[in-house]
UniProtKB/TrEMBL annotation, chain A:
Major subcellular site: nucleus
GO molecular function: RNA polymerase II CTD heptapeptide repeat phosphatase activity
Organism: Achaetomium macrosporum
Quaternary organization: Component of the cleavage and polyadenylation factor (CPF) complex.
Subcellular location: Nucleus
Catalytic EC class: hydrolase
Region feature Disordered, mapped onto this chain: 1-20
Listed Polar residues bias regions: 1-14
Source lineage: Eukaryota, Fungi, Dikarya, Ascomycota, Pezizomycotina
Family: Belongs to the SSU72 phosphatase family.
Keywords: Hydrolase, mRNA processing, Nucleus, Protein phosphatase
InterPro entries to which the protein is assigned, alphabetical: RNA_pol_II_suA
Protein name: RNA polymerase II subunit A C-terminal domain phosphatase SSU72
TrEMBL record, chain B:
Subcellular location: Nucleus
Residue ranges constituting the Symplekin/Pta1 N-terminal domain according to the UniProt record: 98-317
Protein name, as recorded: Symplekin/Pta1 N-terminal domain-containing protein
Entry GO CC: mRNA cleavage and polyadenylation specificity factor complex
Record bears the keyword Transmembrane helix: no
Matching InterPro entries: ARM-like, Symplekin/Pta1, Symplekin/Pta1_N
Organism: Achaetomium macrosporum
Example GO BP: mRNA processing
Keywords: mRNA processing, Nucleus
Amino acid sequence: MDTANGSEGSSAPVQNGEPEDASGFKLKFCTVCASNQNRSMEGHLRLSQANYPVISFGTGSLVRLPGPTVTQPNVYKFNETSYDSIYRELEAKDPRLYRANGLLNMLGRNRLIKWGPERWQDWQVGMPRVKHEKDKGSAGMEGGVPDIVITCEERCWDAVVDDLLNRGSPLNRPVHVINIDIKDNHQDASIGGGAIVDLADSLNKAAMEEREKVGAAAFDAGGAASRASFDERVPEVLAEWQQRWPDLPSTWTLSWF
Amino acid sequence: MAADSSATPEKALSVAQQLQQLNAARKVVLENASYYDRIVKGVLPIIGRNAALELRRWGAEFLAESLATPVLRMGEKENMTVAVLETLRGLIEGAGEDIIVLKASVTAAASAYPVALRWIIHNSYHTESWEHMSAIKSRILQIWDGAPVPVKLSCIKFAQRVVLAQTVSNGMEQKYGGLDISLNMIPPNHPLLDPRQLEAEATGLLDRMLGVLQDNSSDAPLVDATLNCLSILIRTRPNTSNRILNTVLNFNPLKLANSPMTPKTRVLVKSLEKTTRLFLTHVLKRDPNNPMAGRIQQYIERLVRSRAEIFDEAGRKRALADQAAASYGDAKRQKVEGGLAQVVIPPLGPGPHTLAAVFTLTNNLGLAGFDATQLPVNLAAKISVRALAALDQQVLDLAVSGIRDRLTSLHAAAAVAAAATQPAEINAATAPLGVDEDDDDYEPDLTPAEDTEQILNKLDNAPPEEPIEPTADAGATLALGPFKLPPPPVLDPNVAAKLSQAAASRVFGPLSSLKEGAPLRKPKAGINRLAASSYDRDSWLTLITRLATRSTAGLEDVSSGIKPEDAGTALDRPRMSLGDTIREMLYNYILEDWRRRIEIAVAWLCEEWYNDQLIKRSGSDAPLHYEKCALRLVDGFLSYITAQDKVLTRFLAEIPELSRALLGKLKGLCADPTTVQLALTSLLYLVMMRPPVRDIALDTVADIWAEYEDARPLAAKYLVKWRPGFMESQTRGTSAPANNVAIAT
């Protein structure tokens, strides 16, 4: 009974929401920046628009947004503050300033993507994300384990890789962690978002080829070893991508959840 | 139930329909973990060895996900894990299995291994499960070498989990994900598991894992994957730590940089270098006291330098070839490195060097030959100040470390040379070996025969390069006439008193900054301790109390002879002695927080008492301070005392001498009904524990009985017990209590 109910309930959104998903395999992504506001959220939005399952995080200790002066940033706690509440607070504080510097615009976008900024270090990998149905890019992320993590700054990459070493890889799941250096402003974030989708498309293509070709050659043992797998092709794909995006320096490693 | 609904329509439904149902089932378990056991078991018949490829892929991935889920605790996973072993074995042993199925199955096996091991530890009768797990293990270890990369990656991780489970743990790991399953849990007499054999297997597997590093492979996915799963071993399995660190420190992630730099090799080199560096930084951060910390630090520094060279060079070439590509690479870092690269500190060649040569940083021969001593001193000073003010901190750091490197390399080279020139004194069997090993670390052509100390000594004795005379000459020309300090102003006694008071108050300065001595950790030094040997708060207080009591002892006879009665009360007397000034401040210091500083008060009074005894013995008529100070202290805190202040009892018990006057002060407490009990129990304590003062304490109790109605019941109780007969005499003469009191006292 449970299964029957579940299948009825869940088959509908699959058919409505993701016509493409039925046709093809999709890698699952995770975008990371310092505050889970600008760069990672731009990436989150663009990847979800391209129908990739995606989640996003920040590695900072707190969510920091520019304030009236450099020394007075607006600071919020991760996981406890919603984009909407930040939006309303800043709008009440100084609507002109925060509209002019683009913060309200950004927060307005973010609150349509998910509830609030989440901290990487507090995230329990593999916890089912079934309660996040309204988040953009949630479809396909129910298992809570991405295949690729894309950070937007070198020190976020460092933090992520270090944190994964810390966790001790209990899930035994390999994950490609890729950094793309994107400057923290709206324009560069937008450019970076496009670059992230380009990279995602390239990676997904390689992953799909692996699944299709190996599938066809599944039963002759020699066939599989003769061509490169997805995991091997990631650096190659990244190198090609780098040629297309020479202004966004990248770093990659293969780590474990 | 779940199994039935998915299994029955199996034949009728297409693979796509089945997948849809399976996905629905997966959603159910993700939403409610309590279904895991049933659904996983129900799914097993559909995804087995003979199912369609899509179903096997889905199944293997589902198993990998389910066995790893953090939602279930270890105990909850056992049942499910044991149930899937047979299916898992079928998938892994299938000849020519699909890569994705294999990869996911091996991943699932990695998660299953610690759980299965734990289960077998407690359920040794169930040999069948262990047989499945062992078969899976040997099959995985067998396909490891020849497998395609994705499967190989999973095999590495599987091996890591086996090593983790079969080595001795230090108990430092998290309690989830089975990371805490270790050799410690296996009893030595287990019928299926032999700990020694398992440990030996783990050692072998670790070696096999590290093989990829030992071969200095540039297969980035494999190397990265290996490095990124080693940290937990180092942290929690001490027996593996040295082996791993030695291997990593001998690994050269930049080997690939020697081949032509294609965009792909660039990605690979960068990845290998950063992964290695982050791994070591992580180890260093987690365990700064690691015995290998020094080597790790050096390795990291060397790596950063080589990386800078490689990528900097590449960056320059690119800059020439293509302006747009110039910004490629780590823009922020390049800038800094570019700035630093301007200061290149060449290592010194062999042979003895002058001190000037050691400190010469320029390559410009003309500049190097310039004799700075010819400059007038004031000009040199001006230039130095200007230069230091304008100097970039990083450049200065670089220069300083460059000089330091030169000195250490000279030192090291001299040590090698010394070892080489004295072969007779060294064990012939070991010496050449040591030198050979060190060859990598030393510049072979650096062989000056002296060490730095010798060079410096020689330089000191030799006619100085920078002659001293010119300096002296310059000094002479600039010399001013003889300088005399103006005579000090005449000292007014009031000012002097103020100043000495200020001096005394400075004695108390360190108290605020010194840490409270940690009472728990402090070892008892016993009778042999020195009163103020450690520079902590306690010893400073000892110092202060002795300054107060003994510094001027015996010197104040005269003044005391004149007006002894003033000494305690005249606070603002201009000519207070040093001792009294410090006493005054000590008194204030104690009263500031007397509940916590009662110990200091006791220590102080002990010192006063001791000093009084010395004075008495010497027969001088110097004033005695103990009684005065004790009364004053008691007066001081009695006015703040509350019923809870048991410190009073302690204070009275610990100070060296009690007098009638002192105990008489306690009577005042009985005016307040809340403190009656405190006063009387303090006295009772004295009666019981300090026999020498029992009488005066009892007299005080009797006084209290007589004077304070409220205190009578309690006082009477004590008196009945300790002064039998007293109460009778009182009750007989109730009409004249005053007389009786007089008799009693």
